[in-house]
Design a protein that fits this description.
single chain, 6-stranded antiparallel beta sheet, two-stranded antiparallel sheet, 8 strands, elongated
Length: 136
């Protein structure tokens, strides 16, 4: 699918990414990776865990930088090296210039599972959490 004036290719296998609708989300039919704009990622997270949104809004959502010895992936949109980050305990790649995340196959599902688990943990009665902490 073209973005702006050029096609967007998978940073893993080089095939053209598919954009199924008007959302800022693309997928790779070959390696099953996904490219999501930050806004789309926030929407996905809010579907499974609406109470995770910080009080300050999306500007309060952060990713932790990570160090890696592997070669950085090139951003599918601008070709600049993507920054390695952690989100929900999952190693991802993020382009701060284009505000996109690259998810390898299955990684988006893992991030959403972590968000759902965090939401469920917060909604447990305090007594149940206390017993879990005390008795495992």
């Amino acid at each position: 699918m073209t973005y702006r004036d050029r096609s967007v290719s998978c940073p893993r296998c080089g095939v053209e990414l598919i954009r199924k609708d008007a959302r800022e989300a693309w997928s790779c039919v070959k390696c099953k990776g996904a490219l999501l704009d930050v806004g789309e990622l926030v929407r996905e997270l809010l579907l499974v865990a609406p109470d995770l949104l910080p009080e300050g809004g999306t500007s309060g959502i952060t990713t932790l930088g990570r160090r890696t010895v592997a070669r950085a992936l090139a951003c599918p949109m601008c070709a600049a090296p993507m920054e390695p980050v952690f989100l929900g305990g999952v190693d991802l790649d993020r382009c701060y210039d284009d505000n996109v995340f690259w998810f390898d196959a299955g990684e988006l599902g893992l991030v959403l599972e972590v968000a759902q688990g965090q939401r469920e943990e917060r909604h447990k009665p305090w007594l149940a959490r206390l017993f879990e902490n005390l008795f495992g």
